[in-house]
Write a structure and sequence with these properties.
By secondary structure, the chain is an alpha+beta fold. 35% of the residues lie in helices and 19% in strands. It contains 7 helices and 7 strands, in the order βββββαααααββαα. Bound molecules: zinc ion (2 copies). The site of one zinc ion has 8 residues, from strand 7 and helix 6.
């Protein structure tokens, strides 16, 4: 329910001015859309997981899919640069993520640290092909990046560390 420039938060249900809601960037159909959050910033900060679920990304994407080319929202959305950070970002649905979580046993697939509010999952993907590889903790995800996703370098690192292991 939107009244003038107020809207209701999907979590606390309070009617608040639009400034109380953040926005997020959603890549779709080769363009970058700025979408308003459905949870107010206060609720989003209190419970980010619930705030994320409130985004209803599949629904928003289905709306974007139906936008005619002369639609103002469509026309004003910038094109995604093929070399920019959104170009090869993996897109997976909530259902796919749930399946991956189950397959990973809710743990990082490298160091086996259980995912929690403090250890968030990262969707790891190949930067050359965009293919999703699995779910990792932040440390392991950036670790692969520091090793330039190079299995041989990682293997050498293992041998190097084991050489002087206590
Ligand atoms: Zn709220
Ligand atoms: Zn890890």
């Amino acid at each position: 329910m939107d009244i003038d420039d107020q809207k209701s938060c999907c979590i606390c249900r309070a009617l608040k001015p639009t400034e109380c809601f953040g926005t997020y960037a959603l890549p779709a159909r080769g363009r970058l859309f700025t979408v308003a959050e459905r949870a107010c910033t206060t609720c989003f900060m209190t419970d980010p997981a619930r705030g994320m679920r409130g985004r209803c990304i599949e629904f928003v994407k289905s709306v974007i899919d139906m936008l005619p080319p002369d639609d103002e929202l469509w026309a004003s959305a910038p094109r995604i640069s093929p070399t920019g950070p959104y170009a090869k970002r993996p897109h997976i649905s909530d259902g796919e993520l749930e399946g991956m979580m189950r397959a990973a046993g809710d743990c990082c697939e490298i160091c086996a640290t259980p995912f929690s509010d403090t250890v968030k999952h990262r969707i790891d993907h190949c930067h050359q092909t965009g293919m999703i590889r699995g779910l990792l903790c932040h440390s392991c995800n950036v670790g692969l990046g520091f090793f330039r996703d190079n299995p041989r370098a990682l293997h050498s690192a293992t041998i190097y560390l084991e050489r002087s292991a206590p």
